[in-house]
Design goal:
This protein has about 180 residues and is an alpha/beta fold. The chain has helices at about 15-25, 30-40, 45-65, 85-95, 105-110, 125-145, 160-175, and strands at about 5, 30, 75, 95-100, 150.
């Protein structure tokens, strides 16, 4: 039975690496945000707006526990998932946890072009976006670093880099 949880900040490449790794290993892939949206037939921003952050985080925790019971799966968590409740303890006790560590410069470059798809980033100037990333990373790092493994997520820009990262992840987890 294989269960892998990928954690890290938004834009770290959790979904990119998770999908490619799952395909390579013949595992199922779940993006936790997509899983939640599919179950509730609403977008994450809609759920946040309706329930507030506390309500959303409770829902997210419940869906993490549900998906975390599946076998032979790679789960890409939301950027904030590890930072609430006992989520990191749960993931560490139910599977392999991997923190995709990406420096703020790379996250800024990736997220700068995705502000329209990510409501929390909309309307931010470059300076505000960079400050937002720096602040959030500092707050979340104590949670992210509880993962069993730490991997550089900055090299997921093209097929070759993704293939190399898939190989590196497999070696790291000794599949």
């Amino acid at each position: 039975m294989i269960r892998i949880f990928l954690t890290g900040y938004m834009g770290a490449g959790k979904t990119t690496l998770g999908k490619a790794f799952a395909r390579e290993q013949g595992l199922s892939f779940i993006d936790l945000d997509w899983y939640i949206e599919g179950r509730y037939h609403k977008s994450i921003p809609q759920l946040f707006a309706e329930r507030g952050e506390e309500g959303f985080r409770t829902l997210e925790r419940n869906m993490l526990h549900e998906a975390g019971e599946f076998e032979d799966v790679v789960i890409s968590t939301g950027g904030g998932t590890p930072c609430f409740f006992d989520n990191m303890d749960y993931m560490n006790s139910h599977g392999q946890t991997v923190f995709l560590d990406v420096c703020p410069d790379v996250l800024f470059r990736r997220l700068r072009v995705a502000t329209q798809q990510r409501p929390i980033l909309q309307g931010k100037s470059d300076g505000e976006l960079r400050a937002f990333i720096d602040r959030a990373l500092a707050e979340r790092m104590p949670y992210y670093t509880q993962a069993r493994y730490r991997m550089d997520g900055s090299r997921l820009e093209n097929r070759s880099q993704i293939a190399n990262s898939v190989r590196q992840l497999g070696e790291m987890l000794t599949m």
